[in-house]
Amino acid sequence: MTSEHDRDRLITKGKFEPLRGLLDQSEYTEGVTAEHKAELLAAGLTEELLLEYATKKSNLFALTGGRREGQVDSQMATRREVEAITAAKAHIYKLRQLVPMVVRRTKATDMTAAHIAPSGELRRSSPKIAEHLRKIRNLVVKLETGLAPYFGGRSPTAVHDQIISDLADANRDQEVKRGGLAPESLELYEAKGAMLEIIEDFNRIGRIAFPGRAEIAAKFNKDILLRARGRAKKAKEDGEQTVNEAETETETKEVAG
Predict the structure, then answer these.
(1) Could you tell me which of 51, 134, 122, 49 has the C-alpha nearest to residue 90?
(2) Residue 138 counted as domain residue
(3) pTM of the prediction?
(4) Residue 125 belongs to what domain range?
(5) Quick one: pLDDT band at residue 94, thresholds 50, 70, 90?
(6) Is the dihedral of CA 8, 12, 15, 18 positive or negative?
(7) Which whole number is the average pLDDT over 75-83?
(8) Structural domain includes residue 111
(9) How many domains does the chain have?
(10) Is residue 238 one of the residues assigned to a domain?
(11) Contact 129/82 with Cβ under 8 angstroms?
(12) For residues 196 and 203, is the Cβ–Cβ distance under 8 A?
């Protein structure tokens, strides 16, 4: 039976491994092990270890379906947050364009366009955006009549409040996904860690089983998984770059306007 310490260690080991890459790596390692089984058994591999490998591999594949469902749920929460942030930023941009004109036309001498500007960079931070929206709410209330013609028949204050509410709800959903890992997620992380650990053990045996035969020893590697890690890292970096580029474009338009 796995101890609590070992379970935590395996969860940590497997948490951030790309699932598809690990599944493909497990297939490859199983294949190269079967190809050189006799030599590996002579070098210390046992039938018990082979059975353990097969069990861990089957367990990981069995848990894959649950992971896909969890990914969909998490992606939906992330998408809701992105949409809420985008809507909030568009609302702030709209107010920044309208307020100077409305202040001038309504002769609201107790306020200026500077009141609508954020005190610092908002970027894509939903807490910062929500805080800024709450700070400028009174301004929207005071300029309600002057802003109303530009909100398609809706109350500017009501729109403002709804955006704050949507942003808070989306952020709450996302924080739940980030902080509250479901038991099935932990089970998958543990299975990934266990699979990776036994792959590494098989590779260790494979590398000592063929002295003077480097071309065979070299087959016992994690190249498939390493490539998958690289792709996952690049995809994350590309995604962050896309968000930053979009943010920069929006801010440039705001300054130019």
Answers:
(1) 122
(2) yes
(3) 0.53
(4) 4-251
(5) very high
(6) negative
(7) 69
(8) yes
(9) 1
(10) yes
(11) no
(12) no
